[in-house]
Description:
Elements: H1 3-13, H2 22-29, E1 34-39, E2 42-49, E3 52-60, H3 69-83, E4 88-94, H4 98-106, E5 110-120, E6 126-135
Parallel strand pairs: 3-4
Antiparallel strand pairs: 1-2, 2-3, 4-6, 5-6
Helix pairs in contact: 1-2
Amino acid sequence: MIPEDLAQTHAAAFTDQRPWSAEEFASLMSQTGMILCGDAKSFVLGRVIADEAEVLTLATHPDHQRKGLAQAALAQFLTLAQSKGATRVFLEVSETNTAAKTLYKNNNFSVIGTRPRYYVTATGDKVGADVMQILV
């Protein structure tokens, strides 16, 4: 996948926040320990450091939501993270993102904390995040 495709999907999926640019994706993908799963329609980008993995973003283009693509990309990410030595995977998700929280809960992630006012919305408001984890 090329960074421009990831940025386009991210922008379509995250209309309430500032989307990541192609340059930001390129920079992240060049770092050690990065894992990219899925395709331009739906993807998970994360990293493994030592025995921990972090989901940095999961995005599905609105034209392709509710087709199981995010579920498949997340499952692939969890498998790859475990194969690279991760025993725990964590992430932050907006407290208002019900669809994502449902996906994570359905995949046995649990809330382990919160980050108040973590995300800045497109209107400048700040929204909290739930910190979630799963042991793999």
